[in-house]
Amino acid sequence: MCTALLVALVAVTASAHGAPVGVDWAVHDWALGSRPPWAVHLAVGVTVTGSGVPAYALAALAGAWAFGPGRWRGALFGTLALVSAQLPRILLAELVARPRPPARDWAWSASGYAMPSGHTTTSMAVAVLLTVAVRRGAPGRWRPVLSAVPVVWAVAVGLSRVCLGMHWPTDVLAGWLLAAAWAGLAGVFLVLCRRREAGAIHPSEGDST
Question: I need a surface site. Which of 5, 27, 111, 170 has the fewest CB within 10 A?
């Protein structure tokens, strides 16, 4: 469903040659007119954690936590998993080639095309990895609370992009949809790999008996 919604959103945006829709302008203008200075500073502090070194460090931490004894292998897995989310994002951004909001509205530095939002996609992908790590490694009573923290952080990163005037709201929505589609496909891939391993193990056990 997320993939279908993402395709529809991209198709509508591409058909309009990247032009923002009505809700984009409405939310963008409201954000610019309603943000106090403290909100801008807070949004900058949140947004810098959603990409680059902080995001990859969190992805590596999630992988190391999830793998337990094989921490170095887990850290590598987490890093490569985040890279696998970046590749379709970059390809989609180049395909849509949507311009960002006017540079005069930005409260922080930005580069590249607008859709999907890179910080939004990256942070939500990292949130998925952290949630998996929590489900595998955190004590049972703390799991609900700790599972919510990465999602809240990723949502805050996405909202910060709109608050800072560097993305249209539909760019952020596209980033969330892309991350959700990536997580779903990754889950299916892992399930298929486990079934294949299970199918390879059972016959050998039967032969040995």
Answer: 111
Return d(Cα 68, Cα 137) in angstroms, integer. 8
Measure the CA angle with vertex 40, ends 38 and 42; round to 5°.
70
Q: Residue 46 — φ and ψ, nearest 5°?
A: -75, -45
- Are 90 and 75 a contacting pair, CB within 8 Å? no
**Residue 50 in contact with residue 120, Cβ under 8 Å?**
yes
The confidence score (pLDDT) of residue 208 equals 47
Q: Which regions of the chain are under pLDDT 50?
A: 203-209
Give CA–CA dist 61/75, Å, rounded.
6
Question: How far lies 182's CA from each of 54, 68, 104, 124, 165, in Å?
Answer: 20, 24, 33, 10, 26
The phi and psi torsions of 116 (rounded to 5 degrees) equal -80, 160
User: How many whole angstroms separate alpha carbon 137 and alpha carbon 86?
Assistant: 26
pLDDT at 209: 42
CB atoms within 10 A of CB 104: 7
Backbone angles phi, psi at 87, to 5 degrees: -60, -50
Maximum separation of any 2 CA atoms in the chain, in Å: 74
